[in-house]
Amino acid sequence: MTSRRTFLKSSILSSSLLLPGVVKKGANLLSRQKQSEKTYKPLIVSTWNHGLEANEKAWEVLHQTGSILDAVEEGVKVTEADPASRTVGLYGFPDREGIVTLDASIMKGNGDCGSVCFVRQVKHPITLARRVMEKTPHVMLAGEGARQFAIAEGFPLEEEVLHPESEKDYKEWLKEAEYRPVINIENHDTIGMVGLDAYGNLAGSCTTSGLAFKMHGRVGDSPIIGAGLYVDNEAGAATATGMGETIIKICGSFLVVELMRNGRSPQEACEEAIARLIDKNRDNIENMQAGFIAINKDGEYGGYAVHPGFNYAVKHEGGNELEDAKSSFKE
Length: 331
Ligand code: SD4
Description:
The chain is α+β, with helices and mostly antiparallel strands. The protein is built from ten helices and 13 strands. The radius of gyration is 21 Å and the shape is globular.
């Protein structure tokens, strides 16, 4: 009697013969599996407590499509669309002029990357960043150019209306209009996500509305490849959150990945990068939070911050847990 397994195998083979597209896809899969006999344990790590929900979505997509790139895109889209988020997506805090401008970046382990910054009216800047990566000869589009590209790509533009909570806080802020950073604002900030699939491919995404009440035109670390996000299949993946200016100054995520390339574990790399960040930002570091998360292909992960309060969500086969990051400064 034909077993179910043999039946499935022969059905796939015979349908492959009928469909040239399927033959190609099947052959690619087989050769890919042959090339790399090693299998990896999928892992997804993302910043702050909103990472828990984003991780769940990313995991689901990873299992549906097998693509870690799809997973990290769809995962952070959950946060971008969350009306409760004041720090990611169009419901976020506006800049000093009362306008919400968004930054996002996405990167694959082979070096492909795309980003958008200072973009308005686009609900999913992470998808626009991916479109820049896949459909243009460029890496980064800014402001009105990014918005025009979104229109050309058929993205719907959202009305520029502040979320009532964001508007309330903005009006309150206007009374003094004094700029000062707030550490761990609402305990959920930029979402950065890094992930590993079963084939050993890494990918990452990062998306934010940036600092509350920033200067109009200010761009943070999140859309800057190497600062807010960096991924290299040969070394690891890292992403950042917190005061972007401090992170840009040390090419933070690139630094974390290079430290892993040189043999550090993800945890050691995050700690060393934070030490460098503190060293290069001594002036006002007591008021500035920044944190990194990182993973490598051995399934190790780590996270570290300047101040207490930073946490990150870790999703693997066995669960999805929030971990408190250790920090250089103590309570
Ligand atoms: C930025 N790193 O724009 C982002 C946002 C953030 O605390 O994490 N703010 O600087």
